[in-house]
Amino acid sequence: MLALKSSFKNLAASLLLAVVWAPAQADNVVNQPLDDLRRAASAPLAPNTAVASIAMVFQPDCAWCKKQGKTMRQILNQCGAELNIAIIGYKASYRQLRRELKHFDQSLPALEADRRFLAAVEGVAATPTTLFFDQNGELLLKQRGYIQPAQLFDAADALTQTGCARMVPAV
């Protein structure tokens, strides 16, 4: 348990350090239009370009993605104005990804990854993969695997620097 707490603190500290020291990126991935899985349109990962972003990459039949999606929804509900939150489908057809959305809350923005996006984040080895971006759209951290709710809340707090996720109860 002590190692787990240390891991949470290290992730939050890494994110905070990256937010403070991250340089601006000219061609940022958060503004690239991706296909919206909920509407027949395209949308950027970060509709609010003045705040940081957290995105979870998912694929069909990923139980850990569904579990982490619940935490993502809680953070969206608590920090929606201070943080862009989205889920990004990957490794399946548009139709399969749309069907998979029944496992995620309707309020979560859902997009489909394309080749440009995957290249910009240097690929995705497994799902869930959580991507943390600063307010300039630069990728700060790519975390492979399920992230415990407390750790994800700490990361959201580190990105926003407002403590908006501190009040979120555990899933």
Q: What does this molecule look like?
A:
It is globular, with a radius of gyration of 15 Å. It is an alpha/beta fold and 171 residues long. The chain starts with a helix and ends in an 11-residue tail after the last helix. About 6% of the residues have low confidence. α1 packs parallel to α5. A seven-stranded mixed β-sheet has the order 2-1-5-4-3-6-7, with helices on one face. It has a single domain, classed as Glutaredoxin. It has five helices and seven strands; from the N terminus they run αβββαβαβαββα.
Task: Tell me, rounded to a whole number, the average pLDDT.
Answer: 86
The number of E-state strands comes to 7
CATH architecture identity: 3-Layer(aba) Sandwich
Highest CATH level, the class: Alpha Beta
CATH homologous superfamily heading: Glutaredoxin
CATH topology: Glutaredoxin
The ordered H/E elements are HEEEHEHEHEEH
Low-confidence stretches: 16-26
- How much of the residues is beta strand, in percent? 15-25%
Radius of gyration: 15 Å
Please outline the helices and strands.
Layout: H1 2-21, E1 33-36, E2 42-44, E3 52-58, H2 63-79, E4 83-89, H3 94-100, E5 110-112, H4 115-120, E6 129-133, E7 139-144, H5 149-160
Parallel strand pairs: 3-4, 4-5
Antiparallel strand pairs: 1-2, 1-5, 3-6, 6-7
